[in-house]
Amino acid sequence: MTRPGEAPPHARVRCTLQIYEVEYGDDHGGVCVVRCLGGVVRTGQVFLAPTATTEPAPAVTLTTTRIECYGREVPFLDPPHTARVTLSGGPVAGLARGTVLSAALWPVGPPVSSTLVNDQEADVTVTAVAPVGSAVEVAGVAVPGFIDQAKHPSWWSEEVPPPRVGDQLRVVVLDDSRSPVRLSALRSDIGIARGRRETAAAHPAPPD
User: Fold this and answer.
1) Predicted local confidence at residue 56, as pLDDT
2) Which backbone phi and psi does 190 adopt, to 5 degrees?
3) What is the per-residue pLDDT for 23?
4) 191-198 — which CB contacts under 8 Å span 24+ positions?
5) CB under 8 Å to 62, separation ≥6 — which residues?
6) CB contact set of 95 (below 8 Å; sequence gap of 6+)
7) 3-class DSSP string for the chain
8) Alpha carbon of 72 to those of 66, 76, 180, 185: distances in Å?
9) pLDDT < 50 regions, the chain
10) β-sheet bridge partners, residue 36
11) 107: closest CA among 123, 94, 121, 91?
């Protein structure tokens, strides 16, 4: 329930980046030097374009596809640190110094599907954290999801912070037969799933 003048839950924002410099960019993305003002920004984080509002279904989004600190790739960026980030999916060249990019805390818009299938990728938001793993809400899908603790990057690296409510992650479906659906945020699992999908696309099954 929201109070008068308060944005609905699906429109609230948490992670924010401030543009310091645009190194290069075009209508499809680019590379910027940024400072993290709030939240933990990870690869795959989707930001609303500066011209977007808090209304559902913003016209343009920018996705963080790479984060670099001191010349090496890192898995996340937290306040008040700066980093060199690669953004894709929308225009970057017009971003001015001082522009603040905000990420939607919850998936934007109503669900568009009621199913998830193995090897499918999705964007999720952590809604609850327990010792055994994290419950998540899947963007655009009316299906509950769960990430076991060993399927979160923090299980394998001390450099990655543990999951927190509000974190946004890119995941892949491991087991669509369970409820909630089991998901993984590990790059290795996402890579394996992509390989299987590419193989299936290149060698489609014969018709029945």
Assistant:
1) 44
2) -65, -40
3) 93
4) 193/118, 193/119, 193/120, 193/121, 194/121, 196/119, 197/119
5) 29, 46, 47, 49, 87, 88, 89, 90, 92, 101
6) 19, 22, 25, 32, 50
7) CCCCCCCCHHHCEEEEEEEEEEEEEECCEEEEEEEEEECCEECCCEEECCCCCCCCCCCCEEEEEEEEECCEECCEECCCCEEEEEEECCCCCCCCCCCEEEEECCCCCCCCECCCCCCCEEEEEEEEEECCEEEEEECCECCEEEEEHHHCHHHCCCCCCCCCCCCEEEEEEEECCCCCEEEECCHHHHHHHHHHHHHHHHCCCCCC
8) 10, 12, 36, 21
9) 1-13, 52-59, 105-113
10) 17
11) 123
Q: Which token pair is 131?
A: 């010792």
Residues in the chain: 208
- Report CA Rg, the chain: 18
Q: Do 123 and 36 contact (CB within 8 A), yes or no?
A: no
Tokens of 70: 């001191």
Query: What integer pLDDT is reported at residue 88 of this predicted model?
Result: 87
